[in-house]
Amino acid sequence: MATMRANVPDLYTPVFNEMILESDAYGEETTVMPKIFDVKTMKNGEGDKYETSSLSSLGRWTVTNESANVNFEDPIQGYNSSFTPLKYTNAFQVSFEALDDDRYAVLKKEDEVKAMGRGARDASEAMAAGHFNNAFTAGATAGADGVALCSNSHPKNPEETGTLYDNYTTDALSHDAIETMFALIDANMKDSKGIIVEVPSNPLLVTGSLLHPLAKRLVSDMAKERPETVNRDINVWAGELQPVKWRHITSSTAWFIVFRNMGLKFIWREKPHFRSWINEGTEQYCFKGRMRAVSGWSDWRGVWGSDGTT
User: Fold this and answer.
1) If we measure between CA atoms, which residue out of 115, 150, 111, 117 comes closest to residue 134?
2) pTM, whole model, 2 decimals?
3) β partners of residue 91
């Protein structure tokens, strides 16, 4: 049965959807972002924004004498975050004449479709990695608390802005620098009431491409002795951190300790997909890739960073 011209877009849209999501095109399983971010998908009817609201825990329990009144305490409203998905698109066209002259003209667009899939992957990766590339810069990239993702001046809460928390160093990546970072984590991993927050297990050591070999050496199970020393001390980080290379991180010196599910969010409103239509005026079959997404953070405690400048 002959392929009807009017049916061509509907026929090939599922084909292109499959192509764009293949491992060598979009390749969701090859992206770094899902390893680091808490990925959410908004449902229809949930509005045009993804919003988070934080409320503090209650403070430390206190000694109460027999028959004395208990202490009633109110939680503190923390910082609220709002994420508005943006629309990303790309498109290509096939002329009527191309299809007239070559019955496989649309299928021959496979390479362009896969390239479009890589573009979708690159856009989502770049969006998420942008928070790390701008982690030490406030201004437009500030979080809900008004400072950069990695800063030495995170306010304790909206009511106690004079008490500051710190998740930023300048140490170049090394065994000792990681030790310093975890000392910083121990001292500053507290909630908005000042209660100590348990440090999550299985942290990630995230770097760009240039630092990744060093990161792997520093945390390798094989490195039972401290790298780059002659004292034969034990390497306390062997097997304790998972090194993650992210080629979208542009800095050659910055590195990060990341705890998953602690504030970093990537929100899909609509995952990458294809749509198609016929433009009778220009006599072209039109195919468009489309997605809506946004990323950000609701809690800085998920990321501890060094710009590696000292």
Assistant:
1) 150
2) 0.82
3) 288
The full set of domain ranges for the chain reads 18-45+84-306
Phi/psi at 259 (5° precision): -110, 120
pLDDT of 10 > 70? The answer is no
| Contact by Cβ (8 Å): 158, 78 | yes
- Alpha-carbon distance values, 157 to 80, 107, 152, 165, 306 (Å): 11, 57, 14, 10, 23
Average pLDDT, the chain: 83
Q: Give the pLDDT confidence of 43-75 residue by residue, as tens digits.
A: 876 777 888 777 667 777 878 888 888 888 777
Residue whose pair of structure tokens reads 């979208």 in the numeric block: 248
Residue 95: what pLDDT? 83
Residue type, 149: L
Cβ proximity of 92 and 112 under 8 Å: yes
Other beta carbons less than 10 A from residue 201's beta carbon: 7
**Which residues, in sequence order, are CB contacts of 204 under 8 Å at separation 6+?**
35, 36, 241, 242, 243, 244, 256, 257, 258, 259, 260
Per residue in 116-130, pLDDT (tens digit) is: 778 888 999 999 999
